[in-house]
Amino acid sequence: MSWLNAGLFSVLVASCLLLVNTSHEARLLYAEIDRAKTEKLRMDAQFKVLEAEQQQQTASMNVQRRAEERLRMRTPGASNTERVTDRGAAPTAAGTTPLLRR
Amino acid sequence: MVSWLRRSLARMVARVRALRGSRRGPRTPRGTGYGAGVGYASSPLLAAKTPVGRSKFLVALVAVSFLVLLARAAYIQIVGVSFYVHQGDKRVTHTLDLPASRGRILDRNGQVLASSVAAPSVWAAPREMDLSAPKRQELAKALGMERSELDERLRENNRFVWLRRLLDEPQWGKVQALKIKGIYATPEFRRVYPEGASTAHVVGFTQLLQDRGLEGMELHFQRELQGQAGNRAVVKDRLGRVIDDVGEANEAVHGRDVQLSIDAKIQHFAYQRLKETVTHHRANSGSAVVIDVQTGEVLALANYPSYDPSQRPTQVDASLRNRALTDIFEPGSTVKPFIAAMALQRGQVRPDTVLDTSPGSLVVGPKVIRDSGVTKRMSVTEVVQKSSNIGTVRMAMDMPPQEMWSLYSQLGFGQKPELQYPGIASGKLRPHKTWKPVEQATMAYGYGLSASLFQLARAYTVFARDGELVPVTLLKRSEPVAGTRVIEAKAAGQVRDMLRLVVSQEGTARRAETEGFSVGGKTGTAFTHREGGGYNSDKYRSWFVGLAPIKNPRIVVAVLVDEPATKQHTGGEVAAPAFSQIVQQVLRIKGVTPDIDVRVSPLADGASKPPPAPTVLARRTP
Q1: Model confidence band, residue A95 (pLDDT cutoffs 50, 70, 90)
Q2: Catalytic-labelled residue, pool B285, B306, B333, B580
Q3: What is the rounded (10 degree) CA torsion for B65, B68, B69, B71?
Q4: Separation between Cα atoms, residue A94 and residue B374, nearest integer Å
Q5: What's the pLDDT tens digit per position in A17-76?
Q6: Is B441 helix (H, G, I), strand (E, B) or coil?
Q7: Residues B328, B427 contacting (CB under 8 angstroms)
Q8: Are strands B105-106 and B354-355 parallel, antiparallel or unpaired?
Q9: Sign of CA dihedral B325, B331, B336, B339
Q10: What stretch of H or E contains B298?
Q11: If we measure between CA atoms, which residue out of B376, B372, B333 comes closest to residue B356?
């Protein structure tokens, strides 16, 4: 009888230790999940910051400034457009050729 | 009690000494205590009989002690349980805030016009800090502030001080790298406006540190854009790690995105042209409106001067006003086509009906109405083309005032446009019953009533849509909408043909001609009001409102330049060139096929010499 009691007691102690260990591991894993979630939120926020920076770079004002400063591009207009005749093209009924190319 | 115990102890010691004949007490001299010393089993002290009363007393004392302990345990476990549970929770349970970001404002193509980005705000608990002088210097540098400023802030409060609000993420990284105890960050959001000044008046701006819109769309859609912060209760271990959640988390609800009808590219282009026009003519300000006539969407709504919304203007000045919507003016000649359309619809006239406009002046009541430089008789078409005041007045004076008022009213004058924007002006249109004949006459050519540039642009959609007034919106719509009929289709078409002639060699707005596209429109030049009443005879307001392509209109564009200071001051000279450039760019962006050959007036775009014809290939030159 005493052997049975001792055996049951050992099982009880072992299961208690297992329970404690399992719950400890569960908490560690939970902490890990929470850390991953926090990291995801941080990266989402970082993504938004980068997205905003990208939008800033591609904003019309920046594109125009760079086009003018670096590529020396200008808005086409009558004052800065040179017209030449394409002698090979057939004229339209209106007398001018229909081709408009930029 | 203590003295009694002492006395009892002393008596027992004396008795033991007497029994052992020894001078020392019952302590075992060395070793185990069971060896050479007193054998406890044979100790006379233990063998001595304890008085019964004393035994009972001791038993009672132990029992009472246990009862006290039981009572205390019962109190803790049953009566005061909530207090202790609360105290326990306070030590391990923490509430974490879940911040909600404000919704974005997008243009019609998804380009971001306003967005919130995470920006940590750094604070310190000075009593937890132990800063050496070099660390203090490093911290000040990482925060981007002077050492003296940092010292001053840290002296403000011992428990909590803000060090820097809305820091950049990399900057916060530098602060963290210093590993200074007592420095913390609270997650906050900063609003950024990538398109800057060009969309400032439409988008508006928010308060810097609070999620509250102050101007424009940010203000109008505050409820939709605003997010709702959440929180979650968690259990933390002694290392500060979250190891469990307590109950359901109250999730943060992020603000909704709002997509506008504005096209960022068109908006920017309109803003740039406006800026150039205002600067070139040394004008006070300028505004431009572009409306898609099929859907009623506002594609651009630009004003100059403007401001940078990221800088959060702190002073209320004129540059904050969305002039196109909030400023009202007398529209001048731009209303003449409406009178012509009404006269055509009523059967009073036909396009070729000749009106007597000679000798260039007409007396109505106490006022002499004049035409500048026009003295001959002219047809209704010519009246619109050459912007004759007298011809328009002759048509208007044949109408009942009620019908004229009804026309203006149906066009939206004197009423606030149904647009999603705060603080829109309604303009002024007096009831027809109060009109005197001279007022009816002046109202026919745009004096005596007032409207915003936006109202005027919207009114012109009746010519673009065969007499229907389109319901306008600042939100993306995409689908064509049904309009409200104001003028019969035939009359609207006839006036549209007249508007085409305004942009011709004989018209008042030759510089509105657009390369590749047929356009039509009407100029307007009005005197500005003088303080104390009357008009300034040397200060003008120049308008041009038109539509394109004329056969199948897609857009209505209105341009206003306020008080140009150069010699040129008419709508045809000042506002028409900007109209032309905006129309050309908008139609290209929208993929509209050019409907006329490329023939550009030498006057257009400021060119000094006429282009050679015929033309085939256009090549840009710097």
Answers
A1: very low
A2: B333
A3: 160
A4: 33
A5: 999 999 999 999 999 999 999 899 889 888 888 888 888 888 888 888 889 899 988 877
A6: helix
A7: yes
A8: unpaired
A9: positive
A10: strand B298-304
A11: B376
**Strand ranges, E, within B13-111:** 93-98, 105-106
Element (H, E) at B225: helix B222-225
Q: Using one digit for the tens of pLDDT, what is the confidence trace for B356-409? A: 888 878 888 888 888 876 667 889 999 999 889 999 999 999 999 999 999 999
* Alpha-carbon torsion angle B29, B31, B37, B38, nearest 10: 110
Residue B115 dihedral angles phi and psi, to the nearest 5°: -150, 155
Q: Which helix (H) or strand (E) is B122 found in, with range?
A: strand B121-124
* Under 8 Å between Cβ of B492 and B325: no
Residue with tokens 């009202």: B328
**Closest by CA position to B242, among listed A17, A41, A14:** A41
Which one, of B351, B581, B543, lies nearest residue B460 by Cα?
A: B543
The count of residues in chain A is: 102
Calpha distance B341→B489 (Å, rounded):
10
For residues B422-433, give the mean pLDDT: 92
Q: Which of residues 514-533 of B touch A (CB under 8 A)?
A: 515-516
Distance, C-alpha A28 to centroid of its chain: 30
The phi and psi torsions of B404 (rounded to 5 degrees) equal -65, -45
Q: Which candidate, B559, B482, B480, places its Cα nearest to that of B519?
A: B559
Q: Report CB contact under 8 Å: B614, A96.
A: yes
What whole-number distance in Å separates Cα of residue B21 and Cα of residue B16? Answer: 8
CB B565 within 8 A of CB B283: yes
What is the widest separation between alpha-carbon atoms in chain B? 156
Known catalytic residue at B333 = yes
The verdict on whether omega for the bond into residue B602 sits within 30 degrees of 0, i.e. cis, is no
Residue type, B518: S
The token duo for B615 is 């033309």
Report, as an integer, the average pLDDT of B547-566: 93
Rounded to 5 degrees, φ, ψ at B134 are -65, -40
Contacts for B276 with CB less than 8 Å, ≥ 6 apart: B578
Which helix (H) or strand (E) covers residue B535, if one does? strand B535-548
B67: exposed, middle or buried (Cβ count in 10 Å: 0-12, 13-18, 19+): exposed
Q: Report residue B362 as tokens.
A: 């007409």
Alpha-carbon span B203 to B213, nearest angstrom: 10
User: Which of helix, strand or coil describes residue B354?
Assistant: strand
The secondary structure of B560-595, three-state, reads EEECCCCCCCCHHHHHHHHHHHHHHHHHHHCCCCCC
Among residues B564, B554, B407, which one has the least CA distance to residue B484? Answer: B407
For chain A, state the CA radius of gyration. 38
CB contact set of B173 (below 8 Å; sequence gap of 6+): none
DSSP state of B176: H
Residue in chain A closest to B511 (alpha carbons) equals: A78
B-chain residues near A91 (CB < 8 A): 614
State phi, psi for B355 to the nearest 5 degrees: -110, 145
Which residues of chain B make contact with A45, given a CB cutoff of 8 A? Answer: 117-118, 169, 187
Structure tokens at B524: 């307007």
Render pLDDT for B306-326 as a digit per residue (tens, 0 to 9). 999 988 777 677 788 899 999
Q: List, in sequence order, every residue forming a beta bridge with B301; answer none if it has no partner.
A: B289
Cβ <8 Å between A59 and B612:
no
Alpha carbon B577 to its chain centroid, in Å, reads: 31
- Tell me B35's DSSP state: S
Q: Is B580 on the interface with A (CB under 8 A)?
A: no
**pLDDT at residue B37 is higher than 60:** no
State how far the alpha carbon of B591 is from the alpha carbons of B294, B502, B588, in Å: 15, 25, 5
Alpha carbons B280 and B579: distance in angstroms, whole number: 15
